[in-house]
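Late entry, evening session. Most of the bench is empty. Finally got around to the prediction I had been postponing all week. Sequence below, unchanged from the version circulated by S.P.
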Amino acid sequence: MSWQTYVDEYLMCDIDGHTLTAAAIVGHDGSPWAYSSIFPEFKIEEIESIIKDFDEPGSLAPTGLYLGGTKYMVIQGESGAVIRAKKGSGGITVKKTNQSLVELKMSWQTYVDEYLMCDIDGHTLTAAAIVGHDGSPWAYSSIFPEFKIEEIESIIKDFDEPGSLAPTGLYLGGTKYMVIQGESGAVIRAKKGSGGITVKKTNQSLVVGIYEQPLTPGQCNIIVERLGDYLIEQGL
């Protein structure tokens, strides 16, 4: 089996109608063994920096990971084995093997489209998003409300100081939700009329789901918290 087959059949495989944006297998010396049609043209120095981070974990953190001239912000990976980094609504994962690097570019939008806006008994969330702790939107559904940074800051504060939102309510996109029982430091749940919102905090982001009947609060919680738990397991 050729190295190109591994890229074409195993890395660029279809998952629920979506694929990686690009993928490659690269030797430790920077030589490209196989790559997808639109994989970025990279410099040897970029691969050398990635290899250095595997040997000296954390060395990429101050500068970011560069590939094909594009800068990615390094997030938690697996020391000496996996590097994960993000840029806007997308990102990159690099896995080190004995002889090569397997490089994958993936989209946060896929998590929203396939895992948050999934169909449950013929119904879906009204809107969903993954937002960085700094308020930057990583990915969101088509009608997710336009929010203010201050609203995200207030949500983050409630995770750090549970109960701080109770007197004022949770605001998102100017809409006020009444905070109800959640999980201190991990999940905030709030309601408004026949609908509501669930926010799950992960290591790097907030997973947000907004619902209206006939979707139930419990179904919203399951959708949001299931993805949040998965991202936490992945160090994200």
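Two things to note before I forget:
The first strand starts at residue 22 and ends at 27.
The mean pLDDT is 90.
Will write this up properly tomorrow.
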